[in-house]
Amino acid sequence: MRVYFAPLQGYTESFQRLAHRQVIGGCAEYYRPFIRLERGEFRRRDLAELSDGDLDSVPQALARSYDEAFRISELVSSHGFRRLDLNFGCPFPKVVSGGYGSGILGNADAVRDVLRVVEAFPDLSYSVKLRLGQSSVDESKSLIPLLNDTRLCQVVMNPRLGRQGFGGEADWAAYEAFAGQIRHDMIANGDMLTKDDASRFSAVMIGRGLLGNPLLGVELSEGVAIEGGKRIELLRMYHRAMVANLGGIEQPLQKLKTVWDYFLPDAKGRLRKAVIKSRTLDEYLGCVEALFDSLGSEWASGDLRY
Question: Quick one: DSSP state of residue 103?
């Protein structure tokens, strides 16, 4: 099985992606949070992220026109990247209301305009990440011929409508119907929190599931179960690598605390709460080590759930 690490804005930043690849791995590709233009300019945080030297990851473009897609393609190409994902799936209301993300899916002409950029950059390998539609499954159905005629390395689909956000039921029957008509490599995305959730697919993209259980990708891709002391030690090393990768970054404590929005949800409540409430980096690191020391073999085996 191939596993792809999904991007989550504010969570899958450079320090986390690099730590996961360095210590755990198991993922075919790591997707970056999307790059977008605001008032005609690139956001400073996007430019800073692109300069981290992690050329093995996949930048994402949030664009609603050929011109925007061209400028983002030019930017990532100039930084040395050879992959770019076109995001037609983000369901956040502010994104959708501007005609971006899943908000573009009801406008086939706008999608066609964005996809023209693929021919302008023959040295870039493109993929598309999308939903079933914003308001109707018919939106993705109408795009099948266009997607098939476009030079893409893969198509990632979360089988929800944009209007569902991250809630509601995923329509896996609609996913299978769509995938059966796509000539490109298909990757399933959404609700992949455990090995059982992902087991019926040959390729999956996982976000929250990997943030909660960072070992999920390597267990799926290599068909192994990492248990007991080895499981705890890998998670400890992964956290230490994140801390090391934050060297020189302002407010590292706040970034590290954000990790715990998803990380190890089954860890003991009192110790987990102490980590989140810590006020200094030294206090935080001490609390984290105490938490890892407390993890027993019964917790260490089996899937983590939310």
Answer: G
Per-residue model confidence (pLDDT) at position 268: 74
Residues of the chain with pLDDT under 50: 297-298, 301-306
Fold of 2-222: TIM Barrel (3.20.20)
* Contact indicator for 32, 12 with CB cutoff of 8 Å: yes
- Side chain identity at 52, as an amino acid letter? D
Residue that the structure tokens 């407390």 belong to = 294
Beta pairing class for 29-35 and 58-61: parallel
Q: Which two tokens stand for residue 143?
A: 């795009």
For position 266, what pLDDT does the model report?
A: 83
21 by Cβ neighbours in 10 Å (0-12 / 13-18 / 19+) ranks as middle
| pLDDT tens-digit series, residues 45-55 | 899 889 888 99
Kindly list the distances between the CA atom of residue 167 and the CA atoms of 5, 163, 276, in Å, as whole numbers in the listed order.
Answer: 20, 9, 26
Phi, psi of 278 (to 5 degrees): -60, 145
Q: What is the pLDDT of residue 305?
A: 42
Query: Which of 241, 244, 229, 236 lies closest to 288, judged by CA?
Result: 236
Burial of 285 by CB count in 10 Å (0-12 exposed, 13-18 middle, 19+ buried)?
Answer: middle
**C-alpha separations of 58 from 61, 82, 85 in Å:** 10, 8, 7
- Supply 65's token pair: 């026109």
Q: Where are the domains of the chain?
A: 2-222, 228-300
pLDDT tens, residue by residue, 238-295: 999 999 999 866 789 999 999 999 999 888 788 999 999 999 999 999 999 999 998 8
Q: What pTM value is reported for the model?
A: 0.93
Phi, psi of 241 (to 5 degrees): -65, -40
* Tally of CB atoms within 10 A around 55: 13
* 249: phi then psi, degrees, rounded to nearest 5: -90, 140
